[in-house]
Specification:
- About 85% of the residues lie in helices and about 0% in strands.
- It is mainly alpha-helical.
Length: about 130
């Protein structure tokens, strides 16, 4: 088992939970309450829930990568690429639209998850059965 990748997976799952449980009332619900056309509200919900699905799938991919040497590079690499892209988007839009990174702090967690995953790709996996016995 790769503990760096396991840590990245755990943080990704936590991030998914925060997105769904806290982000919904703070972001998704107010957008739906805004005076938008029904078509725009459909897109708001589609994009919101698509993000939820991607976060969940990426969390599972990192978890699988933490235990599967065979698929580790591909799974973790794909997630790192996506999360680095997300970090870049949060940084770019945060600076570009509101002039600060602190109104869109999600970049930090995406960079942290990516860093943990990259460390996992460079490290030697831990055999937990040897530690227990």
């Amino acid at each position: 088992m790769n503990l760096w990748l396991l840590s990245a997976a755990a943080l990704s799952f936590v991030t998914t939970g925060i997105h769904v449980l806290a982000g919904g009332p703070d972001v998704h619900d107010p957008l739906l309450a805004a005076d938008l056309s029904p078509v725009l509200k459909v897109y708001v919900s589609l994009l919101w829930h698509a993000t939820s699905a991607v976060l969940a799938v990426n969390s599972v991919a990192l978890l699988w990568a933490s235990v599967s040497r065979r698929h580790r590079q591909a799974l973790a690499g794909a997630v790192v690429a996506q999360y680095l892209a997300y970090a870049g988007l949060f940084i770019g839009y945060g600076l570009g639209y509101v002039g600060t990174l602190w109104q869109t702090p999600q970049w930090a967690v995406f960079l942290l998850i990516s860093t943990l995953a990259l460390l996992g790709l460079r490290s030697t996996p831990v055999n937990l059965s040897k530690l227990a016995g």
